[in-house]
Design brief:
Elements lengths: L1 H4 L8 E5 L4 H10 L3 H4 L3 E5 L9 H14 L7 E3 L6 E4 L3 H4 L4 H17 L7 E2 L1 H8 L7 H5 L1 H13 L11 E6 L2 E6 L14 H13 L4 H14 L10 H9 L6 H6 L1 E5 L9 H12 L2 H12 L22 E6 L8 E3 L4 E5 L4 H15 L7
Parallel strand pairs: 1-2, 4-5, 8-9, 9-11
Antiparallel strand pairs: 3-4, 6-7, 10-11
Length: about 375
Amino acid sequence: TCAQLCVEWNEGHMRMNVRRDYLLSDSMEAVMSLSRKDLRKVWRFEFIGEAGIDAGGLAREWFELVTEEVFDPDMGLWQTSATNQMCMQINPASEISCPDDHLIYFRFIGRVMGKAMFDRQLVKGHMVKHMYKHILGWPIMFNDLKDIDEEYYNSLKGLKDLGADVEYCGIDFTATEETLGVKQTVNLIPNGADIDVTEENLPEYIEACLKYRMLGRYEAQVNELLLGFFDVIPEPLLTIFDFQELELLMCGLPSIEMEDWKKHTEYSGEYDRDGPNHDVCIWFWEVVSEYDEELKARLLQFVTGTSGVPAKGFGSLQGNDGNVRKFTIHGVTLETCVYPRSHTCFNRIDLPLYEDKDELEEKLKIAITMAATGFDIE
């Protein structure tokens, strides 16, 4: 455990002196100069020129300010996810924003995240789901692509339905990358531009596209982030977590106002007419109200893709197009699906017309907990 790895205070501790105006550069210089043992020592912070003894408050402020700054899209290392405005993903063009040291920044970010988890501090930024999977060494599934680019996911899925006709689409093993308005062709496999996609090699093409979109575009950055993280917390210690738990540990349990959540929920499908007054919807809110904070956060992860709640509350929850898409309960028949299903791009849960509250409670809990395994319940 982290407690056993922690270096005792009397064996030495680290004093971090940083200038508030140069917080990031001072912090990076200090953190990157430390050995693995130093990273596991107790850190005490001092903002130069300010009175204040660090009894925990300054450390909390440092982690918040540093992670807030590195996740700022204006810095160019990270960008807002196209499908979820609450989540951040690595900017494939980060080298343009920080040409000299963008990889050092990712090693630094990894160390700060690892140290935050080690010291039970919080990180001010939610990452896209597959980044937590990368940290845990979990396999990336084809369905994960849907969470970051549903249109691209559907177009690849559509190729499967073409059968032998896929050869007439004129597709080869390349992808087009656009940076600052300049388009560039990238080979997905060696000599990809010379290999046409056929019905036989279509599975290989889809796998190559998935690997490129989920890792290849920013593989160097991911590698540095993971190396930094594992400098603090050895990889084997993470095997007890799933990716949802990892997000909750790193970003903290959200503060969820049940009345705000209910007030800004929309109803569609079978619940369109009665809305919150439909028996199943009444049961749903009764069940959710009895959940502890962690289970409420996991329900949010299941439906919206992240445990984050917008600063202005549920009324400003956004969908994949950047527009406000409120939490939606969509009524479906039991013939359509037995378990609740989620559509994270639309912040929508498909909730079957259960016959009693107990069945709803059982099926909803299974759906939420199974989502953390990375496999579809169906």
